[in-house]
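Data deposition worksheet. Section B asks for the primary sequence of the deposited chain exactly as it was used as input, without tags or linkers unless they were present during the calculation. Section C holds the resulting structure in token form. Section D is free text for depositor observations; keep each observation to a single sentence. Incomplete worksheets are returned to the depositor.
Section A, Depositor: J.P.
Section B:
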Amino acid sequence: EKGLSVQTVRQLNEQIQVFVDCGLKAVKGSREENVMLETGDGAILVFDKPFDAHRFAEVVQDATREHNKASDDPIVKRVFRIGAATGEIVMEPKTGGGFDIAGMTIARAVRFEAKAKPGEIVVDAATFDELAREQAQRYGEKETITGKRNEQFDVRRCLLNPDAARDAAFVAEKARKEAPAAKPATAPVRGDTRNERREILRF
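Section C:
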């Protein structure tokens, strides 16, 4: 977004949310029930089932792949990384609609998104174990990734958009030249609670 006008950034963020809507439609979801936070260039969502989280990610990645095929201009291409974790969260209704959410599950999903490569979804063991067989078959072998300080997580990767690395190359190179690596945005985390088991997806 650096170097873009306010109007252009707004249009970019609106376009990204269109991809979110494509994924929600595929799983019969809604913004009211599933979208907990819009992050400008992404979102944090909750699902009751890992099957729906994977399906959402699959449709979003497919939609961006088709979008990118329509133009040779690198600046209009869109590429996503996605992280998903399953665990306990607490959800509190907000005045005016929506929810505040808390729990370490959110933090894990954010960590996984940061470790994902363009076009991938990275999930934890709890998410992987509850996927449908045909979904699980698309994932690679278990690997261990690091988080903050001494954090370690067992995860698996699934490449949903095989064109993403190529499409992201221009933007990645531009970012390397302009600024140091940025830390991923995180939702406020108030500690793990035992309230409701949900699937958290961050992209």
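Section D:
The first strand starts at residue 35 and ends at 38.
The helical segments are 6-26, 31-34, 50-69, 104-115, 125-128, 133-136, 164-178.
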